[in-house]
Amino acid sequence: MIGKGIPRGFIITLKNFFRTPVTVQYPDRKVSIFEYAKIKKKNIFKLFFSQPMLSLKISLGLISVPSSVEQSQRFRGNEFTFFEERCTACASCAKYCPLGIIEIVSVPGGFDAQEGESYKLDVFDIDIGRCMFCGLCVEACPYDALHMGTKFEKSTYVRDNLIITKEELAKSEKSPSSFYRPQFEKEKFDPFKDNIKDHYKAGRHEKPEYKDLKKKWVDDR
Amino acid sequence: MSLETRPVTVNLGPQHPSTHGVFRMRVTFDGEEIIDVEPIFGYLHRGSEKLAEERTYSQIVTLTDRMDYVSSMLNNQAYILAVEKLCNIVPSPRGVWLRMIASELQRIASHFVATGFLLQDLGALGTPLIYCMRERENILDLFEMLCGARITNSYLRPGGVFMDAPDVFWPALSRSLGDIEKSIDEIEDYLSGNEIIFSRTKGTAVLSSESLVNASITGPMLRASGVDWDLRHRNPYDYYSEITFKRILHTASDNYARYWVRVQEMRESLKIISQCIKNIEPGPVRPSFDDVPRLVRPEPGDSYAAIEGSKGELGFYLVSDGGISPYRMHVRAPSLINLTLLREMLVGELFGDLFVIFGSVDLNMGEVDR
Ligand code: SF4
Ligand code: SF4
Fold first, then answer.
1. Which strand ranges, in their side-by-side order, compose the sheet holding B301-308?
2. Does A99 lie in the same domain as A189?
């Protein structure tokens, strides 16, 4: 039974033994003192003499640094990015969601600089405890108000906390993924480094000039 | 004095690590030999077909991801083809090429999983499985670039795909094709000549091609018995008629043949992908929303579309009553139908081969129970 096959298999496992590992240590990874100095941008000798205890601990492998997983720009994460200024409360997202987990209550009286008169949002709840991150709501949003987020590390102890409200969405980090938003890919926006502060930047539309707006909404009326 | 023996009935599963999901078998042994098998399934039933009756045609794509969760792209493709047939949608060429690339990548990923778990069932704890999973990871990374998700893709839409591939995708794809080619070589080197695998898999669970055809078993299981039946060739959907590839056949119809067919099919898939890359041209990836709105409302009628899935003929049957959601959706799940000969395969074999035979069918409980 023993022939050439088994030794050849062992050669391949031996080759793999010397490959660089593909696994990523997550969420923390151990670092050597050289790497630690590089991450903290410190001179290694300075680090060693100023904080000898810390250096010793690092050398013994007691200190770990947070590691990140490589993600694509289009990653559909669970921290939705929402720009209330852009939202007209049209409820397209709520209608297109296969699970019906977006709750929208709106009242008349909102105003959007780009889209004109609109409804005002009273309630905008997403129950991400039931969400499957399919992104259909983002696809349906005609005003680029709702985007998938790229972060996925938000966890809670209580199930009710998974219902994210308008206020939480307003506070959350504005690092949208480029899922169904080709404008981010065109502008080379990197959600892992940048944030979008100006909601005009998030849309497909140009930012309107003040005089155009005045003409449209004041003079022509 | 002769020893008195009597058959023992053992309950395997539903939460057994080797049953590829939640599958339960009531097996009767006479010593080491299997004399009776009774499969019991339904533990993963989520009612996808019923759920589909409440959702619009575009929303059902997300349900199909969760049927066979190691080949979601292929499920998407089969479902979308059925919708396109039902609504007479003419797909955009670039969208079709993109979905062919995606589904062939998914086929490779699925076969990697099948090969890895077959070896795991053989007792090669860990190593080959981890090698296969490592290569599959490349493909999942490509999917993440394409559609933002790794397993539950929902990449396809009626008429094409939802978004064009990003610029980083194409170099990564050509790099991965080389990597996958090398790793298939490695797996073949590693396993196809291995004497232990020969002795364990050759000549076990042999099925005649007649019984396979009579039980309407399709996919690599059927091709391992020498029947040339591949829907990509027999009934070309999408643009498979413009593509040349070799149909992989084996005549032994045992566990080794099934494994071998899968490994060789991965190579053919690579060739198909490189032909797709040559043929793809710039253009829109889906028809405009004037032609195909998000809420399609087909005429009353029905349609059936089938593709060559990673496990066999995967078909979707849709009945429309003119509303926004189907009146009935039925899935021809290859995993379920490939299980029909389980009893014939297992009876007479030894206990040690039980899970190997089970693994060689390459089933996915998400699809069996739906
Ligand atoms: S990602 Fe999908 S499931 Fe989640 S809220 Fe949006 S449409 Fe609904
Ligand atoms: S998020 Fe978009 S789709 Fe949803 S209500 Fe606001 S504007 Fe409409």
1. B301-308, B313-320, B328-332
2. yes
Quick check: is A216 in a domain? no
pTM for the predicted model, two decimal places: 0.86
Asked if B131 reaches chain A (Cβ–Cβ under 8 Å), the answer is yes
pLDDT score of A30 more than 70: yes
- How far apart are alpha carbons B227 and B250 in whole angstroms? 9
Domain shared by A83 and A117, yes or no: yes
Whose Cα sits closest to atom 3 in ligand 1? A131
Distance B238 CA to ligand 2 centre (A): 35
- What number is the ipTM of this complex? 0.78
Cβ-proximal residues to B126 (8 Å cutoff; 6+ apart), any chain: B120
Residue A195 lies in a domain: yes
* Chains A–B, number of C-beta pairs less than 8 Å apart: 86
Interatomic CA distance for residues A31 and A22, integer angstroms: 17
Instruction: Please report the pLDDT score of residue B19 as a whole number.
Output: 66
Other Cβ atoms closer than 10 A to B88: 10
Q: Which domain holds residue A29?
A: 24-70
Number of domains in chain B: 1
Contacting A residues, span 151-180, partner chain B, CB-CB under 8 Å:
177-180
pLDDT digits over B80-106, tens only?
Answer: 999 988 888 888 888 889 888 998 999
- Distance between terminal CA atoms of chain A? 93
Q: Which domain holds residue B139?
A: 8-368
Closest chain B C-alpha to A147 CA, distance in angstroms: 13
Question: Would A9 be classed as within a structural domain?
Answer: no
Residue B13 has pLDDT above 80, yes or no: no
Beta pairing partners, B318: B303, B329
Interface test with A, best of B51, B170, B190, B296 (most A CBs within 10 A): B190
pLDDT of residue B309: 84
Judge if A159 and A52 occupy the same domain: no
**A45-82: per-residue pLDDT in tens?**
777 777 777 777 777 777 777 777 778 888 888 778 88
